[in-house]
Amino acid sequence: MILVNTDYITGKELEMLGLVKGSTIQSKNIGRDITQGFKTIVGGELKSYTEMMNTARALATKRMVAEAEALQADAIINIRYASATVTQGAAEVMAYGTAVKFK
């Protein structure tokens, strides 16, 4: 499966199959949430949240690819990511793009 954030793939003629997406909502456990709260006082990277968001993006991408594979797509173009806070310490990550088949 080819994944790109452009609206074309060089040298390929594309047939659009439709929108595909994947999403997940992730949170950290209360102990890590408290320690990350203390980190905001002194500044610096919140590594626990960085890891959480990286895991969420990977899972959302995997789910998007599964949707595209169900359509027998060869690639996903125009991939975008969006995130939103759901509640304190929890975030939704969505990956979406256009599934295409090579002509």
From TrEMBL:
SUPFAM superfamilies on file: YbjQ-like (SSF117782)
Superkingdom assignment: Bacteria
Pfam families: YbjQ_1
Family to which the UniProt record says this protein belongs: Belongs to the UPF0145 family.
Protein name as annotated: UPF0145 protein I5677_14505
Organism: Mobilitalea sibirica
